[in-house]
Amino acid sequence: MNNGKSIKIFLVDGSAGGMLTAEIGNWTGHVIVTPRSVLQRLFEREESKRTGVYFLIGDYVNDDSTEETAVYIGESDNVGERLKKHALPVDRGGKDFWDRAIVLTSKDSNLTKAHARYLESRFISIAKQARRSVVTNGTDPDSISLPESDKSDMENFISEAQVLLPVLGVSVFRVIDPSRRSTGNISDTTFTPIFELSPSNRKVVAKMQIVDGEFVVLKGSTTTKTWTSVKTSYSGLRKKLEEDGILELSDDADVKRFVQDYAFSSPSAAAAVVLGRAANGRTEWKEPKTGLKLVEWENQNIG
Length: 303
What we know:
By secondary structure, this protein is α+β, with helices and mostly antiparallel strands. It has two domains: 7-167, no CATH class; 179-299, no CATH class. Helix content is 27%, strand content 27%. The protein contains eight helices and 16 strands. The strands form four sheets. It has a seven-stranded mixed beta sheet with strand order 1-2-3-6-4-5-7. Strands 8-9-10-14 form a four-stranded antiparallel beta sheet, with helices on one face. A hairpin with a 4-residue loop joins strand 2 and strand 3 (29-35). The longest helix has 20 residues, at 148-167.
């Protein structure tokens, strides 16, 4: 079982929808999340004058009217001044898609310009690897060379940020690491056993594991060739996975195949994409060793 972490969140104006700060115990990082509507208040704070990286988060509507999360990742030796430029109208060089800004600096003010550039480059790479958002940066910055010790410090800094940011509703940097899959011990609260979905008389065989609260369909799982039911939000999700190259036609042309692990928000979303129709994931996914449905497996240790 993983060790716990202590997270301190402070609501600056006492409102859940307003500006907040967040820190992890024994971590040098400091995070501010602010809605665009109260951005001026950020500029009044000392943290806005520090060196750091920032993320602009908002919604993006693609060509088929599907809404996705969009992110812009940047760095500055004065993040407040840089954010002022992004808040300008588009015709004056600003960006209009974002509705909140996340600023990541250091409590001890030891982040240098080189550190910030390294973090920017790495966060862009991580966001693209995670494939949970549209990364709006036009070009990838050049990779930054740091001394070995500094690079190690920055990688640890990133790891802690990846723990904290999803707690704040920022999941664009959550990367599924196949090497971290467990054997499925029920005492491991981070992982579960691997569940399967294999309808009779079909070549569809999918595997799914719950990892850190997400329902991860594993690489190599197969799905129906097409969506076979009425269109729903899940059919739109499946279409996006096909367009993004995450689902591709298998060597067996009767099915499609996941080319990478993919995290879904619910077991029903995962089951629907696999089966090509709406489905109750808690009854469709089964633990192969025991035959238990997901809902039965969830309930077996209650009470």
